[in-house]
Design brief:
globular, about 450 residues, mainly alpha, 19 helices
């Protein structure tokens, strides 16, 4: 394993994962061209609801990828199929529950965030359309995770690109041609999500290592295997809850500063998502390689994977910060043409130059831990970082207001990276029974 081989895996995965935040980014950008900041605020709140719902179950993609990579490394075709079918069933059940519980979800979210009446109106319009895509989104997570774990990188890339190109095209058509406003933005995303699911299912059926048969109930719910899956998913679930507590506190506090700052923060957060998913592509590469190394009992590959993860996280942070620093005005302008929102976004946008350096280790090395299915350190690092964030937000924002909010987020991100790095020697010792760090 060398830099070229690592990048051959990481770059397509980066392109693939970079398309994920484009669903929310495209929605925000299209709404940002409408003549009232309440439109972009409504989409921001609506997107937050779905980020909350889906990120809570984001472990479906991460754990599926890890288990599939380990099965692939061990050349166990039966486990490769089970790595897909078990979380697929869970995704279907959870997605249907979201649809059944849509009214309490909508009501509770709006009570917690308390946006202005116009923002609330558009958020409801957006939510009531996109909620019907819940089962398809979660099953897409499983499909995408399985394809990545099986190193079907080209297929996962095609799937993600198709979904986002379709979403972008339909959003522009529905909003600027048919004047459907926020409803058009939501409908475009819903259609893209359903289309991606259908295509993804066809790709999986073609790529399956066995003649496709639904596993028996006994095999599907094997106690030991299910226990391991739920233990991994439980820790990823807690990790995601911590992340969502931070994001929701950030958004709710930003909303208290008025619609224009809410809209500006929404634009900056979409840019932050794109940065984060850029790192996530490298994390996915590290996860696949770490899972393969453990499945094949190859300590040398695992050690090299961790080294490459460190090196490319720093390189990626430097490039990302430079690109954003040089083209900040252009990038912000891609999301909105409202001068007041652009002015506020530019005022607070400098924090995003710091973000890549704060986040790089936490976002990339995280992939090594997930590939090893050792998630407790990830969970713990997020709990500690969340506690730090809450303390700083409560104490600093009364003084520095929105700047204090961004400061709290950056320090939280540094904590997330730092605490996880501290667990690396323990990870090495547990897996390979070595006394030194990797």
């Amino acid at each position: 394993m060398n830099h070229r081989a690592y990048l051959a895996l990481a770059i397509p995965l980066t392109i693939s994962t970079m398309t994920q935040p484009l669903l929310g980014a495209v929605d925000t950008a299209v709404a940002g061209q409408l003549p009232n900041p309440a439109y972009i605020g409504g989409v921001a709140v609506g997107t937050l609801i779905f980020n909350t719902l889906y990120w809570v179950f984001g472990f479906l993609r991460v754990s599926t990828s890890a288990f599939a990579a380990q099965a692939n490394g061990a050349s166990d075709s039966t486990q490769e199929v089970l790595a897909l079918s078990r979380p697929f069933l869970l995704a279907l059940i959870v997605g249907m529950c979201f649809i059944l519980l849509q009214w309490p979800i909508e009501y509770t979210t709006l009570i917690l965030i308390s946006p202005d009446s116009d923002v609330s109106k558009f958020a409801v319009e957006y939510f009531r359309i996109r909620i019907w895509g819940a089962p398809f989104v979660l099953m897409n997570y499983v499909i995408l995770g399985w394809l990545m774990g099986m190193a079907k990188i080209k297929e996962s890339l095609y799937l993600q690109v198709l979904m986002n190109v379709l979403n972008m095209t339909l959003a522009i058509l529905f909003v600027h041609v048919f004047s459907f406003a926020v409803k058009g933005v939501a409908a475009a995303t819903l259609i893209a999500e359903i289309t991606a699911f259908i295509l993804g299912l066809l790709i999986v059926l073609k790529a399956s290592p066995l003649e496709w048969r639904i596993p028996s109930i006994q095999v599907l719910i094997d106690t030991q295997s299910m226990k391991k899956m739920f233990n991994v998913n439980k820790d990823l679930f807690i990790r995601t809850i911590c992340l969502l507590v931070v994001i929701n506190m950030f958004t709710a506090k930003g909303a208290s500063y008025g619609t224009e700052i809410l809209a500006a923060n929404a634009v900056l957060f979409q840019i932050h998502y794109i940065m984060a998913y850029l790192f996530d592509g490298f994390a996915n590469a590290s996860s696949i390689l770490a899972g393969k190394a453990i499945g094949s009992n190859d300590h040398k590959l695992f050690k090299k994977t961790l080294t490459l993860s460190r090196q490319w996280s720093v390189i990626t942070a430097f490039v990302t910060a430079c690109v954003y620093g040089l083209f900040q005005e252009i990038i912000i302008g891609m999301f909105t043409n409202l001068s007041s929102v652009i002015e506020h976004a530019a005022k607070y946008g400098a924090w995003l130059i710091i973000y890549p350096f704060a986040a790089c280790f936490g976002l990339v090395i995280y992939g090594v831990f997930t590939g090893a299915t050792e998630i407790a350190p990830v969970r713990n690092s997020m709990i500690y970082a969340m506690i730090i964030y809450i303390i700083i937000q409560i104490t600093i924002t009364p003084i520095w207001h929105n700047h204090g909010l961004w400061l709290a987020f950056i320090i939280y991100t540094i904590g997330r990276s730092g605490f996880l790095v501290m667990y690396i020697p323990k990870l090495n010792k547990k897996i390979w029974h070595l006394e030194d760090g990797v």
